[in-house]
Design goal:
Blueprint (H helix, E strand, L loop, with lengths): L6 E6 L3 H13 L3 E7 L9 E2 L2 E4 L2 H5 L9 E4 L6 H13 L4 E4 L17 E2 L15 H4 L7 E5 L4 H10 L6 E6 L2 H16 L7 E6 L5 H11 L3 E4 L6 H6 L1 H21 L4 E7 L8 H18 L10 E7 L1 E3 L5 H10 L4 E3 L5 E2 L1 E3 H14 L4 E5 L5 E2 H11 L10 E3 L17 E5 L5 E6 L7 H12 L12 H11 L1 H4 L2
Parallel strand pairs: 1-2, 1-5, 2-4, 5-6, 8-9, 8-11, 9-10, 11-12, 12-13, 13-18, 14-17, 15-20
Antiparallel strand pairs: 3-4, 6-7, 16-19, 18-22, 21-22
Helix pairs in contact: 5-12, 7-9, 9-10, 14-15
């Protein structure tokens, strides 16, 4: 979302996106004046587009600009690589632009329909990591046209971005499901504002406040909503926090997913896409174990379809690693630490993680949801792992500071449930390339031997009060003992 001063605007990029923004700014007449396009294309430099001059090359011309304090730059090159964006950002900062905005990636711009409201302040996640894959959203989302789509955890980092992209799906209804009133209120308001400004299609938005842990409610709400497709993004995800609240992690993630699957099968949902994490591979944390068991639940449900009334339901799992900029992740933490002058805290100098931007991850999840098959587990190609120290240093430099000179880096040690490296697949799994860029299909050589529903029943008196076994209720130590008996990697920690 964007709020503009009424000043002079320079649009970086004289292509379709920049042209669309210039036209909108001129039409509305309240956001200032576009004084020039900045571009590196020799075929555009020196021309005028709608009487606006195209200046360039960007590196040469930026330093010659005589800027006013209120002048702003908008980077409108949605297909630009990370390296090119980083170069442009440095040029603009050196030219003394204080306000720099950016349009989202090409995968979020439908048919060249860029809108001013989609711009936002540039931040480190726009410049870090690899260049996202280009996904044709309109084509990818065609399977959702005319359908009723429900997103759990719709107010979270992944869920909210799924909803933004789903505005372009042509769905009949989009259900924003979550138990946090404020987060659902915020994403509902944001999506409605985007629609008012012409982003996406006229999907009916329905905010739904509810709790996955309430099995009767999930049954009732699915009977009334008649959802066709479910994207299950809701989960408690903060590893150290869940180590301190293990019962809540299992109750919300495992029992909640079981309730959701039950309601989806009973009410004949056509497609169920479960979002999971690399922490579910050889899990060593309560969070990781909860997601590992959830993966098993979903895949077990796919095998149980058979000739039942819900045989048209396709269950699938999409697994990926960390995403840049999610709430509770290291990027917002680093940002706050840098803004207060440091130090930036890192658990260990050798800690590494796989990273992907939230928009790219969500585009690929939506793509996998359309091309995926019942009972399949898909893995997003995360590229190469990144050292957390390198990420911290890049972020410090984004703010024009030098690591260790201006901002100290401090090592605090691994926290409960953390490990130096994550794995994307088990030794018993083999990822295979598919026809779809950065989406791999995982072959499971050995499905989980444990009966997950038997584990759930063993955990039930810990998570649900049983008058016959009151001593078990909320007993975190008992819960851990149960998990250790059933999950070998967790038992070894």
């Amino acid at each position: 979302m964007t709020t503009f001063k009424s000043g002079r605007l320079y649009i970086v990029g004289a292509g379709f996106a920049g042209h669309a923004l210039a036209n909108e700014i001129r039409f509305k007449g309240i956001f200032g004046e576009v004084v020039a396009f900045l571009d590196d294309d020799p075929d555009k430099i020196g021309r005028r587009i709608d009487d606006i001059p195209v200046l360039g090359p960007i590196r040469d011309v930026a330093r010659l600009l005589r800027l006013h304090p209120a002048d702003e730059a908008i980077i409108a090159i949605p297909s630009a690589s990370r390296e090119y964006l980083d170069e442009i950002y440095r040029i603009l900062k050196n030219a003394s632009f204080e306000k720099i905005r950016i349009l989202p990636g090409i995968s979020q711009i439908i048919d060249g329909d860029a809108r001013l409201i989609q711009t936002r302040d540039i931040d480190p996640q726009d410049l870090l990591g690899r260049t996202p894959v280009v996904v044709n959203l309109r084509q990818s989302l065609n399977y959702l046209r005319g359908k009723r789509v429900l997103v759990t955890g719709a107010g979270g980092s992944i869920g909210s971005e799924l909803c933004r992209q789903l505005l372009s799906a042509g769905a009949e209804r989009l259900y924003l499901f979550g138990h946090g009133e404020n987060s659902i209120y915020q994403i509902d308001g944001e999506l409605r504002l985007l629609q008012e400004e012409g982003v996406g299609e006229k999907t009916v938005l329905v905010p739904v406040i509810g709790d996955l842990k309430d099995r009767d409610y999930m049954d009732w709400i699915f009977a009334h909503l008649k959802a066709d497709v479910v994207f299950h993004a809701a989960a408690y995800k903060h590893i150290p926090m869940m180590e301190e609240n293990p019962v809540a992690a299992i109750e919300n993630n495992l029992f909640g997913t079981d309730n959701l699957i039950y309601a989806a099968r009973k009410h004949k949902v056509m497609r169920f896409v479960h979002i999971t994490t690399d922490k579910a591979v050889e899990p060593v944390s309560v969070y990781g174990v909860s997601k590992f068991l959830c993966e098993g639940l979903v895949l077990e449900a796919s095998r149980a379809n058979g000739s039942s009334a819900s045989e048209l339901l396709s269950f699938m799992v999409v697994r990926f690693g960390n995403v840049l900029g999610s709430r509770g992740s290291i990027m917002p933490l680093f940002q706050k630490q840098i803004e207060k002058g440091g130090p930036v805290t890192i658990t260990h100098p050798d800690m590494r993680r796989w990273f992907m931007t939230i928009p790219e991850a969500c585009s690929l999840v939506l793509k996998a949801g359309g091309v995926g098959e019942n009972g399949s587990l898909y893995l997003l190609d995360m590229g190469d792992p990144v050292k957390i120290r390198d990420l911290a240093e890049q972020m410090i430099r984004f703010y024009g500071l030098e690591p260790e000179k201006d901002i100290a880096i401090e090592y605090i040690g691994l926290r409960p449930g953390e490990r130096l490296d994550e794995k994307l697949w088990w030794d018993s799994e083999t990822p295979r390339i598919t026809d779809f860029d950065r989406i791999q299909k995982v072959e499971q050589h050995k499905p989980m031997e444990e009966n997950i529903h038997a584990i759930i029943e063993e955990l039930r008196p810990v998570c649900r009060f049983d008058p016959a076994q009151p001593q078990k209720y909320r007993d975190g130590n008992l819960l851990r003992d149960i998990l250790r008996r059933h999950v070998q990697s967790y038992a070894q920690e």
